[in-house]
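Why predict the complex rather than its parts? Because the way molecules touch one another can change local conformation, and only a joint prediction can capture that. The input here totals 1058 residues.
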Amino acid sequence: MTVCRDVGDLVARIPDGAKLAVPPDYGGVAVTATLALVEAGRRGLHLVCLPSSGLQADMLIAAGCVDTIETAAVTLGEAGLPPAFGRAAKAGTLRILDATCPALHAGFRAAEAGVPFQAVRGIIGSDLLRHRPDWRIVDNPFPEAPEDRRIVVVPAIRPDVALFHAPRADRDGNVWVGRRRELVTLAHAARATLVTVEEIVDTDLLAEEATAAGVLPALYVTAVARAPGGARPLGLQDLYDPEPAVVADWARAVAVGDLPAGLAAVRGRQAA
Amino acid sequence: MTVCRDVGDLVARIPDGAKLAVPPDYGGVAVTATLALVEAGRRGLHLVCLPSSGLQADMLIAAGCVDTIETAAVTLGEAGLPPAFGRAAKAGTLRILDATCPALHAGFRAAEAGVPFQAVRGIIGSDLLRHRPDWRIVDNPFPEAPEDRRIVVVPAIRPDVALFHAPRADRDGNVWVGRRRELVTLAHAARATLVTVEEIVDTDLLAEEATAAGVLPALYVTAVARAPGGARPLGLQDLYDPEPAVVADWARAVAVGDLPAGLAAVRGRQAA
Amino acid sequence: MSADPRPIDTVPTPPHPREVLIHALSDLLQGCRNVAVGAVSPLPGSAALLARARSDGACRVTLLGSRRHTYFTDGGRELFDCAGQGRIDAFFLSGVQIDGAANINLTCLGDPQRPKARFSGAFGSAYLYFVVPRVILFREEHDRRIFVPKVDYISAPGATAPGVWRPGGPHALVTGLCVMAFDRARGRFRLRSVHPGHTVEEVLDNTGFDVDLPDSVPETPVPTASTLALLRGPVAAEVAETYPRFAADLFGATPSH
Amino acid sequence: MSADPRPIDTVPTPPHPREVLIHALSDLLQGCRNVAVGAVSPLPGSAALLARARSDGACRVTLLGSRRHTYFTDGGRELFDCAGQGRIDAFFLSGVQIDGAANINLTCLGDPQRPKARFSGAFGSAYLYFVVPRVILFREEHDRRIFVPKVDYISAPGATAPGVWRPGGPHALVTGLCVMAFDRARGRFRLRSVHPGHTVEEVLDNTGFDVDLPDSVPETPVPTASTLALLRGPVAAEVAETYPRFAADLFGATPSH
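Output of the joint prediction:
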């Protein structure tokens, strides 16, 4: 586990073309690190969202970092559809692997358990399946009822890198995630896990039983970097609330093609 | 969610013949409730262990409560093989569904996710599989490598009742389990979940983010009962240590067929 | 604390059309033990909280996006796991298009490879629509752009071919004009009631698919004075915790902390 | 704190046979980043902690049953998930019977329906034996009741038929008499070294299966004075945290708190 000098150092570990896994906008997005990826001019990312994204995906798409996005949805909440995503979708310049939330959870869970696939209920009859040749319908070996004969299985999702923001890490690399256990799943499934945190503390986060319950162990953490306010203008657990006005500023600027203004709106919420 | 008057009231909710799921001896076993089941003369239980058992299984087997045990192992730790289990196994009077830990975790995880089965690596070539017609070998739809063609799938395990002991519950039925997340899985998978606790607190365990991370929500909890020292002579998290000498007393008494003395040794460690 | 600014002893103002909607949605939740509501869904959220308030503690409500009304501690998958376990009795879905077979489209218009319009995506619909017994479709606007003969893209299907386990599915459709019940055996909607101030003709004119019609179509019931007081008082204050702007606009309510 | 009661400036007492075993096991862990050790395994646990102490921080050890040396926070399945993810480099297994094809029996003797003797069961062996690259078999006793031509019950197989993905498997066998390496391609053990005070003949006399023999069989290396000091000092104190009785008996050590 490495404590990086800064966020630029951290994102330098994400190569062009990486399959990059991220949490939803309400779940600890590494926005400062996303700005750093944009600044570094990263290209060809396969973004996989557990299970959705919004501002983060749109920043990376707007800046040309993304070739493929695999997600159950993209939304800016009250600010609607992310404009760069919408434009790229219509232009056909972005490969979109539409999924549904539990299929993404299932793919990550399969990777977590070290198995090649997991079953998911539903989906059959939706057009999602027609556009996902990597999903299969198989005979159900354990039917619940006579009509329960066919079921979807999805392959394990093993990202190259998981990237997220959390309240704190300790010097060993243990990371407090609390109830946001999809961050644990992201880290279990990914080959490398990069985390930005509000603070790096000197105490051992695993030392107290009450604290340990919400900790991602250092075993899964490749590198951390300090980034106070690193999820702004999105929210972070009980530490700070999302700022929909800033997200709306992003949407307005990018809708008229003014990426620098959009990035400036986001950057304005980052700590110096 | 019901707060029961006492432990007897709680175990009255476990009918004869129930599929009863329990944690391992080191993971929060409801020993007081197990004594109450023995006293109530419960019969025909299908005990399913996530993933192993020891003293608890032996108490229930010794008292004739168990028809079937599904487990990866039974052990009293330093006190060796549980004597009632060993005797019943040799006599052929107990149906033993031998499993391996990850197959049990997979079965419970399938039930948790609401899917009929989950894949598990390994197992093929072991005699476990020859004695588990409910496990299947299927074609792997997503091979990792050319030789990766066959894989085991196990059915979801949906117990009628999950029973365990935890440090505390609140008045709504939220239960602190901390890092013992197999208790969460037990509750997710089971139709009903019964919990004994050291104490019932007036504060809302979900109110604080730091505490919430280790809480099983009341949504999954059918009933709780107060049972101070309710896991003794086994241990409970960081609250009290196991007492191997008492477990050894159990083993010695039951090995010579003296069940009353064995039960007395265990009962001697319970609160009045 | 209730923040209803109106004195208690005045006659309540007549129900706002959105209050009629909330009430109609809430009626569809009767008998549910667990109701979950997706993010950014103020009207269904209000309806669920009203159903809870009227259930005498029997109904539990999970509002995604709410700190107070979220009971989950196992991360983002818990809602889906919980629904797959059969513990969620009702859920709300919507669509940019909805057709007469209750197929919903949350994804795009036109060719998916080069869509004329793109939307957020399916979220959990392609799954929850199968496993939640009572899925209530809700769309406040009601016109022929939305209610089409056939959706361009099936994000989640209203019916399923044989051989697929499906304990759940569409139960009803509530719009700004009416309530329709979905008959799963026939795979068709049937008009159940029309909201006060609207007509059957208006519904049919604005619906692009065929609807079964009973001999007479009743008016959608409006909340009683006591239900309205409940909605505008404690329920509004709870709604304000998750949807402050919505609650302030509709009820003049502030959060109950 | 080290609790070695012996003054530092005396010549160390010669290695105890169990210290030779611990050292031999530890040598087999060289280069591992993550080693996990099952419950009630004091000798493998000591070996893993010695390997960690000699690794300059590169080797992480998880002792199941230890509060201090457990990094897991996702419940009982995390060890198996973690191994399935390829993160566990080495694990120890044992058997009531072990045969020349490295099949292990942890379950029963005789007919499984009416066994002559019953044991605890397979635990995680039927899985970990497949997914952990370096599985080290360990049994201190060495006789023909244990090392049999063919186990009565295969709890976990040493080799697997084609068509099954198996990145892991048997690496070596360590007993109170010797170290054997397992050749996965040939599916056979090969004697690697015999512990001080024992002979090749003694090994063969007490082994019920055929073993490949090199032209000359070296003596198992004993720990150097500095390794012994490490083992009897800081490692012993760590061992005592999980295995107080074992550490007190072998090293005279008390836990380092």
